[in-house]
Amino acid sequence: MTATVVAHRPRALIDVNVVLDVLQRREPHFYDSACVMGAAETGRCRGLVAAHSVTTLFYLLARHDSPGAARVHLTSLLQYLDVAPVDGGVVQRSLALPYADLEDAVQMMAAASSGADFVVTRNTGDFAAGPLPAVNPAEFMALLDWPLED
């Protein structure tokens, strides 16, 4: 990816793996992912999460902790992450993408349909054939010109 700095406040759909890195403090990814979530929380970027990801996150968080804790986490996240709708049109466009994983295709098309500039994910290769650039958390922070500290 070329080192281009984004001059406006970008819109980024944040993949489930990045959210889980933060909520479950998964190393070695926690810091970079937390920077992305912090950028969304402080308004440095406009963060989005796909509607179907909310249910996936609930399931995984409830299994890891409890349904009550999952609700608390999601309620907090939705204070600063907008929900990118997933409807029949998004699903139809997702099926047309040459992705091995339909869930990734739905993420990409939810992002594109919501006017996102990027998909932020740790699995950038899975999103290569989509209409938007997929960047990892460190790349996204560099695009924001918000240097990560060592």
Summarize the structure.
This protein is of the alpha/beta class. It has helices spanning 16-23, 30-41, 51-64, 67-77, 88-96, 102-113, 137-143, and strands spanning 11-14, 46-50, 81-84, 118-120, 134-135.
Write a structural description.
It is a single chain. With about 150 residues, the chain is α/β, with parallel strands linked by helices. The chain has one domain: 5'-nuclease (Rossmann fold). About 50% of the residues lie in helices and about 10% in strands. The chain has seven helices and five strands, in the order βααβααβααββα. It has a five-stranded parallel β-sheet with strand order 3-2-1-4-5, sandwiched between helices. α1 runs parallel beside α3 and α5 crosses α6. The longest helix has 14 residues. The protein is globular and about 35 Å long. The two termini are about 20 Å apart.
CATH topology: Rossmann fold
What is the H level of CATH, i.e. the homologous superfamily? 5'-nuclease
Which class best fits the helix and strand makeup?
alpha/beta
Which architecture name does CATH use?
Answer: 3-Layer(aba) Sandwich
Characterize the main sheet: 5 strands, parallel
What spatial form do the alpha-carbon principal axes imply? globular
- The radius of gyration computed from the alpha-carbon positions, rounded to a whole number of angstroms, is 15 Å
Give the DSSP E fraction (strand runs of 2 or more residues).
5-15%
CATH domain class: Alpha Beta
User: What is the terminal-to-terminal distance?
Assistant: 21 Å
SSE ordering: EHHEHHEHHEEH
SS element count, helices? 7
How many domains? The number is 1
Biggest sheet strand order reads: 3-2-1-4-5
Instruction: Compute the average pLDDT.
Output: 92
Q: Strand tally, please?
A: 5
